[in-house]
Amino acid sequence: MKQIYSEIIQFRGSHYDFGYMQGEKLKDSLIVRNREKQWEIRKPRFIVGVQEAKAAITRFASGVWDELLGLQDALQWPMDRILKEFGGYRLNYNRSGCTIFTGDSYFIRNYDYHPKTYEGRYVFYQPTDQGYAIIGPSQRVTGRMDGMNEKGLVLGYNFMNRKNPGDGFICCMIGRLILESCANTSEAVDMLREIPHRHSFTYVVYDSNGITKMVETSPRGVEVRQSNMCTNHFEVMKHENRHHLVDSKRRLTILQEQQANITDAYEAFRLFNDSDKGIFSDLYDSWAGTIHTSAYFPNERKAWFALGGDKEPFLFDFSKWLAGENVMLDRMTGEIDTEIPFVHLDDGADWSRK
User: Fold this and answer.
1) What is the mean pLDDT of residues 169-184?
2) What is the pLDDT of residues 249-307, one digit of tens each?
3) What is the per-residue pLDDT across 132-152, written as a single tens digit (0 to 9) for each?
4) What are the distances in angstroms from CA 155 to CA 194, 309, 346?
């Protein structure tokens, strides 16, 4: 078993200052050193124009561009490198797993991916210039892999495929833009229809009114359906699905069979986080191992979080944090059954070896 952690980052202030603070923390970090080595193996196929990226980002959340400027000034990097690392636009994303379920006033999510991509940052951010405050784990620093904002909007996403990519945003930046800008499910659906998508994902959005929507997206179209559970295949845009859907359908069947037995959020959390229930995955070599389990409670503005399986969650009261009460915890710890290095923990978390 590998001991891992997620650092808890808390910040109130402008987007520029938030970016600058994060850049200072990232200087000479393992995340930066490992990502430099990763890029040596997986070179980008093109360069994103600075003005093109700025126009795309500021159209939906101009504060995020200010955050990128803060990162640039702190790290003293050219903007094209900032965009390659943190811009979330026209980049590539590898396959992953993930399972999501919504119930009576709660949202549960397993994040299944590869350890070499996981940066171990759980972020509380309250902007003072524009946009909504957000709680949740980050991906590529500026993005959010799941999260909840101050209005009680919750978002998570599940991978579908990466064939025939388009000129658009990758999933974690879309997560950030939605949570930064939308107050409820309806607004999130509208933005997901408008925003350009790089790859194919289902975005699950849930709000304090108890409304859940599954938004199937690809570079070629967007469809919205009603459900409260999602794995890794489309139900409407079936022509976009991958050929190998056995594990995705297996996890969905478990959810369907167990739904009647789930009486509260804690039971749902245990179904997701217990390693013997069939939802939690140890397929880390296949880019589909469960790294964390998140839960969000939009009416109460509370969140749960666990790293690894068979864990009791860490509990956070986002409403108290929004009122100025800091979380008295620097990091969360957990265990993962893998020897694969994590990008924020280990030297050698590159693609030259497993």
Assistant:
1) 97
2) 999 999 999 999 999 999 999 999 999 999 999 999 988 999 999 999 999 999 999 99
3) 999 999 999 999 999 999 999
4) 17, 22, 29
Q: How many CA atoms lie within 13 A of 182 on its CB side?
A: 28
H or E element at residue 303: strand 302-307
Task: Give the C-alpha separation, 218 to 233, whole Å.
Answer: 12
Instruction: Name the H helices within the chain.
Output: 15-26, 30-41, 50-60, 62-75, 79-82, 171-181, 185-194, 246-258, 265-273, 318-322
Domain residue spans of the chain: 2-336
- pTM summary value: 0.96
Residues in the chain: 354
Distance in angstroms (rounded) separating the CA atoms of residues 189 and 62:
19
H/E stretch holding 126 reads strand 121-127
Q: Work out the burial of residue 235: count CB atoms within 10 Å of its CB; fewer than 13 is exposed, 13-18 middle, 19 or more buried.
A: middle
pLDDT value at position 56? Answer: 94
% helix, strand, coil for the chain, step of 5: 35, 30, 35
DSSP type of residue 89? B
- Quickly count: other Cβ atoms within 10 Å of residue 291's Cβ: 27
Distances (CA, A) of 37 to 43, 349, 353: 10, 8, 11
What does the pLDDT look like over 63-101, one tens digit per residue?
A: 999 999 999 999 999 999 999 999 999 777 666 789 999
Alpha-carbon distance of 133 to 68, in angstroms, equals: 17
At the top level of CATH, the class of 2-336 is: alpha beta
Tokens 């980008």 sit on residue: 44
- Cα distances (Å, whole numbers) of residue 299 to 99, 104, 105, 203: 22, 10, 7, 20
Q: What are the tokens at 200?
A: 């194919």
**What does the block give as tokens for 122?**
């759980």
Find, among 123, 129, 220, the residue nearest to 175 by Cα: 123
> If 0-12 CB within 10 Å is exposed, 13-18 middle and 19+ buried, where does residue 327 land?
middle
Residue 7: burial class (beta carbons within 10 Å; 0-12, 13-18, 19+):
middle
Structure tokens at 211: 């409304």
Contact 155, 111 (CB under 8 A): no
